[in-house]
Amino acid sequence: MRTVLTVGNTAFPNKQTKKFDEECEDEVRTPEQLFTQSINSVFDRIISEIEIRIQSSKIINTNFAFLNDSQLSQLTANNLEKICADLSFKYAQDLKAVDFKQELLVFKDQASIMFANFS
């Protein structure tokens, strides 16, 4: 049953919009329409997953941006220690602050020797 909106002496049928994945009781769908509906659902899922991965990549890029050659070469040992402590807190299962700091200090020294334009 359709509801009717009455304004003054004029009656307007209440139009309800439906989304592409909603079905009407009296609507018969062809195989092509069902296929299109399925494909649209898959595309929506893929787009959502890509957006989630892009956001995750941006977060990781922000967290590890200090590894950029120009930033890493300019960090002092104290700043590097603070960054390593912060990252080891965020990634507690994967990083230990002391080990990570030592590895980065060794890498920083070796990179300055190996690459002429590092510092």
Structure overview:
The protein has 119 residues and is mainly alpha-helical. It has two domains: 30-63; 66-119, no CATH class. Helices cover 60% and strands 7% of the residues. It has four helices and two strands, in the order ββαααα. β1 and β2 form a beta hairpin. α3 (77-90) crosses α4 (97-114). The longest helix is centred in the middle third of the chain and has 33 residues, at 31-63.
In a few lines, what is going on in this structure?
It contains 4 helices and 2 strands, in the order E-E-H-H-H-H. The chain has 119 residues and is mainly α. The model has no long low-confidence stretch (mean pLDDT 81).
Outline = elongated
Query: Count of DSSP helices?
Result: 4
Strand content: 5-15%
Element order, helices and strands? Answer: EEHHHH
- Largest sheet strand order: 1-2
First and last CA, distance? 75 Å
Structurally, the number of domains stands at 2
DSSP summary, beta strand count: 2
Give the rounded overall mean pLDDT. 81
SS-based class: mainly alpha
The biggest beta sheet is recorded as: 2 strands, antiparallel
Rg value: 29 Å
Percent range of helical residues: 55-70%
Unreliably modeled segments: none
Throw out a few tags for this protein:
single chain, 119 residues, mainly alpha, two-stranded antiparallel sheet, 60% helix
List the helices and strands and how they pair.
Layout: E1 4-7, E2 10-13, H1 31-63, H2 69-74, H3 77-90, H4 97-114
Antiparallel strand pairs: 1-2
Helix pairs in contact: 3-4
